[in-house]
Predict the structure.
Amino acid sequence: MDVSCWDGTLSLNEFSRAARTFAEKWKIGNSAFPPWLWVNVPKRPFVASQQVDGFLSLENICLIRPSKVCGAEVSHLEEEETGFSEKEVAIDDATLVLSNHHEMHYYDFHIVYSASYRVPVLYFRGYYSDGCPLQLNEIEKDLPACSAKVLLESKWTFITQEEHPYLNRPWYKLHPCGTSEWMKLLFLGEAALAEKRVAIELYLVSWFSVVGQVIGLRIPIEMMNDRTN
Amino acid sequence: MEAQKYVWEGAIPLQIHLNESEVTTLPPPPPALILAPRIGYLPLLIPLIKPHFAATLPPGVDTVWFDYKGLPLKWYIPTGVLFDLLCAEPERPWNLTVHFRGYPNNLLIPCEGEDSVKWSFINSLKEADYIISGNCKNVMHMSQFDQLELWHSVMNGNLEAYLRTSSKLKFGIVEDEYTLKIDLCSQKSRKTTGEVGMGGQMKTGKIPVRLYIWSVSEDFEDFEDMPKIDSWDKISYINQPIEIHREEGKCFTLHDALKSLMPEFLVDKSLIDEESFRLEGEDEQVILSEDLSSNRMAAEGREISCQSVESTCTSGAAEIKLVRIQGIEPKLEIPFSWVVNNLKNPEHFLHICVCLKFPQVNSLDR
């Protein structure tokens, strides 16, 4: 499909394919992290079987408070392990100050397809180790300093609290109404470098390169560069 | 548009009881009797309800929520839809319990009165805008004053004011397929390649729809005997636009519309058997246990047992037991365009409550 007449959106089937590509590249490029897993939407036997309805899930991620430099250090804590493995991202000791007042904050991230906007939507929630939910003001403190600013000022990435489309619980989400616009710009930019075609399987990789920054999960360059797969 | 007038005038008589644990006086206050507009929302009734109970409430800050037979009610769903969904046999008056304390934050998103409801309404309107015209510009470009006027017309049930203000949104109405319009004839049903319709806007030909489905496994003589919905997990919520497919000389009916969202289960049994063999296998899918809050994930690489889901359904098509829209049960042969134009809610979504009966199946294993 030619980029110039593409509207920046994708179908549910394209989302499923893009999700698989994203998860594979993440596993290869971000091996220090746990993988994104595909969750089938439960108990909906009457959705057309050709349409695989589901979402990507990354759960139990610990976001340590951001250091003074923009960009959060992220690590994953395995309950079974006694310490960080060598593969883990190097952590600035100065940020790892856990006094009694500083509880670890855990996050769940779901990438869900919106049939209305025809784009992926990032849903997330934060909680303490006892499972008590984090309020938005506490979550904002965990976000990279510059993204908090971006959030408040941008019309394209703002957080709203809404019900998770499948789980009947309140979650937070990054509002999707600007996504198709900036995805189109993103692909137009990339198309200038490569072919003019839209490689729809790479949709989520590109999408996450923007969205991930807002929440402090960075994509390594390797994931973006490999376009031959 | 007579029907639209009836919809706007429609109301549910409520009998609102104060939650027992919040009654601090004897005798306990009698329930409040309120007429709730169908197209309205429960939190908007609080100014009418509170004075009734103010004297008995324990001290503290109000965080108001409602429940029906123990089920906390989602406040952003229009009152009429809640009633159609949760009362298979309409209960008049509808007995609800109001709480002023102990908001279930783990289940319901917070509600800070009218502002939250207004925000939710405008947000849905933007979503409808996006579905209908491909972007949110119609709503975004509405002046604050007009947005407020639109919202107030909904709060006050003022259809005249609503029609006046919402015409500025240029959503238009769904064209009756028997009306010849040049631009409609030239439009194909797939709009994603950027065709431009009337007024320079990209018309997607899609209708914003919210479908609420619950299922039963046997026939019931009376709706009264149906199992109660005691958890939102028993309801499948599908928020998905419906695309109207126009065919020469054929009417796109309500049944056609429902079928497009639930294609496999409203067809003949013989067709289902055929389709199960044409199933495209997805290579590697992860199957997770149904307890999504668990952090244990199954190993990757197992082929999805879509086949086994298929097999539960090939034994028989689901039957539509009930379709309810704005409190009425329309015949499924009615043109979908009529249903949309007359029965949609003010935020331009058509809310449909459906009860499906699935035949009893024994096991998932084949």
Summary: The interface with chain B takes residues 5, 7, 9, 16, 20, 35, 37-40, 42-50, 52, 57, 59-60, 115-117, 133, 160-163, 165, 167-170, 177 of chain A (CB under 8 Å).
